[in-house]
Each structure stands twice: as structure tokens, then as C-alpha cells.
Amino acid sequence: MGGFSNFAISFSIISILTGAVTLYGVGLNAGGPVVMGIGWPLVTLFVLFVAAAMAELASAIPTSGALYHWASLLGGPAWGWITAWLNLVGLIAAIAGIDYGCAQFMVPLLGLADTPQNYLLVFGALLLSHAILNHIGIRTVARLNDFSALYHVAGVAVVVLALAFFAPKQPVATLFTQTFTTIQDQPYWFAFLCGLLQAQWTYTGYDASAHTIEETKNARVSAPWGIYMSVAVSGFFGYVMLAFVTLAIKDLPATAAATNPFIYIFEQALGGTFGRVVLWIVTLAMWFCGLSCVTSTSRMIFAFARDHGLPLSNVWNKVSRRYRTPAAGVWLATTLAFLLPCLISAVVAVRPKQLDFSKLYPAVTGISTIGLYLSYGIPLLLKLRAIRRGVWTARANGPWSLGNWSVPVNLVALVWIAFITVLFVLPPNDLTGYIFGGTLAVLLAFYVLRVRGRFRGPVPQARSQDELLKLEAEFEK
Fold this sequence. Notes:
It is built from 22 helices and no strands. The chain is an all-alpha fold and 477 residues long. The chain has a single domain, classed as Amino acid/polyamine transporter I (Up-down Bundle), CATH 1.20.1740.10.
């Protein structure tokens, strides 16, 4: 695998035609056009700090285990176990968010009635298509994943050109001055911050470049650049796309009130037929993104089960003899992804006065964002601890190094991760807090009662500089 292919994997999973599009209504209703004009580049800036810190770790410890192995190496098996579980929770929620978001586009485009049953039916069909392909079509999936990156660039180009040439446009200043919110019980500045979920969830999955590092040529340089540039390039193309989409809004209150504001904008700006053609192009990009995410998650399940980190690990670490795929992991990932919206619906049904079903999709994406970013942050925190203890010095850095900027960049990244973790569980995101908090409590109880003292992790903890350098040398072989 070359450097471009490594970049393409993360770029495809970030998928600006998925996160930025499916959560467009969340961002617009929270803070209006300013969320697109100012919020997107603001989140991009801080995510680049996280990406740079992760890229530096990938260069120093080039293992496909990535986050899970980094945490085990720097903190021991307990930290490795919780990192792997947080990553898994985030990935399962990501699959659910991607395919449920895709269903929100397919239902109206197929002319189906706007009912929860139809959304659930299409959602299940999308998951089934991804599971079957990942089970029996490993070569087809590999080709589709490679094609996906080029398709995303072409898809963004189609969206931008269609709006640029055929849609009426608001003044550019709209992106920086026009505020709007439907969150009435909070000050505008807080509503604006809640709208950042749109961009933050989009920027997930770029650790895929680290997971494929052992298959990449010149890995200690190419993979770190794949992590960093996938965020940077997504930030640029995403901003251009969101700018043109937002400037095409004719009636802001009517757009915000629409069932799907993104679809409404295209139907109003481009007309029914042409608008639907463009929207089908966007929807297919979401399908590609979901396919890639199931692929990545199934590999993570297989690797974690191989290290006996999951209940019934001997079941989930099986590889299909006929198709040579982690088939059990594929079906576990898609089944859990299907059950997550059902679980959230059950929580809403128990507390109907405090919660409502309109929060289901933001809750799914919020759980994904928090789970993934906490799994990103733990290895960064452990690295800073290793630096303070003298275990990690400049000798441990790989060729892709931040040098003297390493500690400040890691600190900024950790502060941002802590900030969004708190932000996305506060009202009106309290449903996310209930589900994620309950999940975390169950995980910690399970670790204390069943796992502690039994789970050894994939690699030994490095307790000195010499041990760290020796283990890094092993990974480089």
C-alpha cells in the first residue's frame, strides 16, 4: 500500500459527504449559518492538533494495533482494555450513525412514507448489504474502498458546481454574521457550541491510517501524513461544500423546520429532478462510508478478540475458511449497530417527559464522537505521563516528529477532547450522557468484576526508556 492509499482510507471514513451532510440540520438549528462559516474551521483547527499528536505516535510505534497497542505499551493492560472498548463503542455507534443517516436520505428519495418503521427498515437493509459484502466479498470491498476516496472528491465537486451554477446565492457575509437557533432555553453562544457536533463527528475514523500502517510502504512517514492530511484535506473540501450549500438557502426558518434541511435546500435551489440526482450521488457516498466503517470495525473486533479482550472471544476471533474474512466480527458489528437506535428509543420511552425521539440521531453520533475521541486521547495522555517520568525522550520519536512542539500540541489536543466530551453530554445532549454514562459504568464494573488480573494485553508495558526503545524496534521489524 502506497502513501496515497493510506491517506485514502482515512479520507473515505471521515467522509465529508456523510457527517457534514447528515448532521447539517443539527448544526443549522443550533447556531445557523455561523456554525458552517466559523464553527467548521474552528473544529478543524483543534482536530488538526489531535491528528498531529496521533500521527507522531504512529510514527514512533508503527503497529496496526494503533490506539489499543499504544495505550497498552505506555500504560499497561488496564489502559489498553478501556481504550479498546471505548474505540469499539465509538465504532459501533459510527456504523449506526452512518447507516441511519443514509436511511434518512433514502426514505424520502425512494418516496416512502416518513415513519419510524420505514427508517428502521431501510436502516436494517443498509446494514445487511454492508454485512454481506464484508462477509463474502473481501476483494470487492477492497476495490470499493479504493474507489470511495475518488468518488468523494467527485461528489463534492458535483455538489459545489451544481449549486455554484444553478442555485441562487446569499451574500458571503451570511456565513459569518447570520445567527439562528431553535434552542430557546440556552444562550446563543452555548447553542453555537452544541452545533459543533456536526463537524466533530465528521472528523472521526482517521486512525484508520494507523491501523493499516503495517501494510504501508515507508510506513513511519506515509501513515502519519495519511492521518494528518486526511483531516486537512477534508477540512478544506468540507468548508467549500458547506459554504455553497448554506449560501443557497432561500428561507432560513423554513429550511431549519424541514424534516431534512439538506434535502430541502437542494429541492428548493435546484428543483425536484436535478436536486434528487445530486442527492442520490451524496447518498451513495454515505453507503461507501458505511461499508468502510464496517470493514474497519470488524477488523478491530477480530484483533481485540484474538487478545481475549471480549466476552466469548473464541467466537468473535473466527475467520471464515471459505472467504478469509472475520465473518463473526462483521455480523457482531452490524447487529450491535442495529440495536443501538433501539436501545436509545427504549430510554426515550422510559423518560418521555424529559426526552424525545428527535434526539435519537444526535445521541447516536454523540456517543460515537465521545467514544472515539476518548480512545484517541488516552494514548496521548499516557505519552505525556511517560515524558514526565523520563520513559519517553526524543530518542523514542519516529521520523515524523513534532520536536519541541510535541508537548504543547498534545496538551491542546487533550484539552479539546475533554471540552467536547463534557459539551456533548450537557443538555440538550443529555440523552447522549445517559446512554454513554451507563455504558461506561457497565464497562468499568465488568472490568473490576471479571477482567482485572486476567487480561494481559497485546504488548507488555514499557517501564523504562530502554524497554520502550526495545519494543519500538520490535514493531519496526
